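Late entry, written up from scratch paper. The run itself happened at the end of the previous shift, but nothing got recorded in the book at the time, so transcribing now.
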Amino acid sequence: MKQLHINLTNWEFRACGDEAWLPAAVPGTVHTDLLRNGVIDQPFYGTNEHDLQWIDKKNWEYRTVLTLEEKWQKLAVTELVFAGLDTYADVYVNNVHALSADNMFRSWTVNVKGLLQAGENEIRIVFRSVVTEDLPKLAQLGYDLPAPNDQSELGGLQEQRISVFARKAPYHYGWDWGPRFLTSGIWREAVLEGRDIAVIKDLYIRQNAVNAQEARLTAVVEVDAPEAWSGMLRVTAEGQEWMKAASLVPGNQVVELELVIDTPRLWWCNGLGLPELYQFRAELLEGEEAVAVSEVTTGLREIKLVRKPDERGASFHFELNGVPVFAKGSNHIPNDSFITEVTEERYRHEIATAVESNMNMLRVWGGGFYEEEVFYRLCDEYGLLVWQDFMFACSMYPGDEPFLNNIREEAVYNVRRLRNHPSIAVWCGNNEIDSAWSQFEENMGWGWKEKLSADIRETLWAAYEEIFHKILPEAVAANHPGVDYWPSSPLRELTRGQDQHATRIMGEGDIHYWGVWHGIEPFENYNLKVGRFMSEYGFQSFPELKSVLSYAEEADMELESKVMLAHQKNGRGNQLIKEYMDMYLPQPKDFRGFLYMSQVLQAEAIRIAIESHRRNKPYCMGTLYWQMNDCWPVASWAGMDYYGRWKALQYTVRKSFKDVLLSIDGTDGDTLKVHAVSDRRQALDGELVIRLHDFSGALLREWSQPVTLAADSAAVVFTLPVAELLEGRDPAQVLLVASLLEGGQVLERGEHYFAAAKDIPLSKPVITVTEVPGSAGKSFTLSSDVLARGVHLTVEEEGIFSDNFFDLLPGEPKTIEFALSGSGEADFTPAAPTGLVVRSMADYI
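Output as recorded:
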């Protein structure tokens, strides 16, 4: 009995009709293959994106030649398995058509027994242009489907937006942070498999009931047998063993085995406990011999999305193993326009950054793709919950039967692929479509339906309901029981009526609040516009100078230059940054100063938002800012740029997401309130110390009082009228510092200025750097002679500091440590930095 496997990696490619074949990397894309062969220039540089739109108008073909031994002919089953084909593809085996694929998001398996021969075999794949494939569909439909992020003009298609017709990553068509690169190619593993024995195709550990006392599970074992077979099914995990007799018939079938684990080690998210994992092994035994084996790693936990009516509407929070979770995190987008370029090291850096930033959740947003296995594995290992969107965003979709069937297959495939991951906390149907269309409220959405006839509106909403209220929830219920489905983000309630749409902040559901940024509302509105779960909000900045210089020349260093505008996908984005900067910050002296100041501005905006959301727990129980990362070097909402470099925002997020937070609120101008927020599961007894300083560091006033903070709570712990605090002093000349002490040690600290940064005069500080004795240069202490705002540290290596973009008060030196990113086995390895440069805001104005 045999099982054979060949990984197909030796490919070449060409544009259909060309004579010459060029070497190809598989997994890969046509764009990256063209780049490696010197046919095109770096796609992300300058305005090269505009010059590469010809690629998606061509058909491309890939081929490989396999030499097979005679033994392959004797196998009962021989299959080609493609884990990912992007997107419209025809597969030929020895010039015989074997498969047509039309969905990037699912795998494709084709029986090739009888098509292969002993000796040489050619496998050829023709990728048809999504442009030429889908333009006729739009013409046949006769009206436009809303898809505002589709950058069709850049692609030379004018107003013909075709992204909704292909089951392909929506962001490939462009987004308001990403370029338009319509890739094609063999983007996931391609293998030839042969066997004449049964094989375990899928092993799912269904979690029927899990608590600290007992985990009741079912091993759901899908088996494909070429012929009838009898034996035993054995499942093992951590020294335990379960067995049952198994009799197989030819073909696919499911065998289930009940499992019970007493006092299981539960999987917890970051901040609540350890992300404990179990490895389960399933074997088909013939006597003592295992003829088929499959292993999965999962964590045992119970996860719920709790929505209960209350006096202010209805709750919206996640409950893990019976414990309410305040979700702290961000929205994840693809790490690259060319997915196959993302290494495990890049994924690990992102996940390690999230954990280092005290996050417990990432949302896999619906305009990208269902992420690679390594992404979810790392979330499992690090304890990050995943809000998982299906891949639909900001568009209306066709409702023809072939398209719906394609979606049904895609949904089942991806739910089954990801369901063993304990990190999956919820499946969400789409991003923003419900509120954008706003079926039950006229003139409240994005203006889509108002432009269409009643018949077309009815047709599109029927397709919407079929996809998001029927196909997708049925796929989740049937294949991932125990994990909730939420039809759209944002959504108030699934009522099929006026109360459904989250077009405004109400007392139920989740909310995307974009009044700050898109609505040009002041930062202070973050304190007023708070919902039950803030699943999107954000503010833009530029990446750091080093990153900007990766796509621009010195001559391009101007806000409205052609290159800067090409790397700003949000229309007036650069001008919006400038307008907000004029509102809140001093004027930068040059473009380099503008880059720095944009990061300070972004960090301040999101700090205000996060603190407001956390202060409002348990009314608000989640804050996921937009966005975690970038898919190319660009001005965007990301806290970590394309190269993994932390912006000021990432440092601010790390502080704002600590399990204990001090938040100082002087929003109304008359009263100052100090809030304490704790995500700990135990009460906190400490001391609150409030100090008022002038900018020379002199202590003007001081208050001290005991503080008791209940477990998992938020409370106001200090209140005083601003006039009484200042006692007539110039608000632009004093600083309030609040410290929370536990056991005599400073647990948390917060600072508050009584005037806007643009109205505070700054002297240029002299900042002294002193190496900490015995640290081998890995730690150093900074001190300043006057107030230094936004102290900015840069070094030659890629890494992070224990703090950055911080304020330094005279008489209060600060010790900083440096760590390299992703060196060796550690995520961040302490190291002595090279070429340390210290600047502050005064250097940029």
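The first strand starts at residue 3 and ends at 7.
(Scratch paper discarded after transcription.)
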